[in-house]
Fold this sequence. Notes:
Shape: globular
Structural class: alpha+beta
Oligomer: single chain
Strand content: 15-25%
Radius of gyration: 20 Å
Amino acid sequence: MCTNSKKKRVTSLISEKVKSLGFVMKRGIFYKEIADGVFAVISNHFYSVTEKRCYELNTHVGLLVSSVERLRIELADNSEKEYLQKYPISTILIQIGLLIPERKEKVYQFSKDVDDAERIVAIWLSDIKQYAIPFFLEYGSIEGVFKLYLYKADGVIIRNREVYLPLFYYLMGEKEKGLHFLEETMTRYEASPEDRILQAKDLATGRLIEYEVLDLDADEIVKLLNDRSLLTVFEQKSHFFPAFASKYKDLIQSEQ
């Protein structure tokens, strides 16, 4: 990550623009309350790319639902609880390019040799106003974020969905559906003790698709692994999910 004057200039310009939209910064993340207990989120990461003689800004936008995060912390194991309390970022984060019609990851490049900060920040701000703000308005509620997870919107990570979907079911009064989803997920975990998620990134479009390993047969897995247009990676299952599932069940039983 770069630390020179170019980064300072870009981050200063972005901070000025975002704050003019009503956002406040906390631990480097921008937040704006758009409904009771629901916050719009803008998260930026700035990197130096030596071979391209540029810096790249990677932006994710999302939503934080306070009631969901409180329940997640309540059901987390001790190590995860400490992390979530210290670094609450958002309930869902999506790379901004997935909101743009092209539906592929987008980064903003700033030349190391040319003073292009204001021009590129203007493009970045235009994307925020044209795509992120409508996203915040459309999904800025507990029901809206629930739909993103329920229907597996672009950018939704399977491991996050496994945890958040039951939380939404619980808070929306559909506890039995949450319990059924947990039991179904646990069955998958028990049947597949090794890697269980296959990530496939399209090298042309940048789009990332995640497959449940148990949903694929051997031929389909081999085909994905041999496809030269894809970057494929196996992901380990979530280590904390069984403990989370147990606490969720205990919570349901205590209310019966």
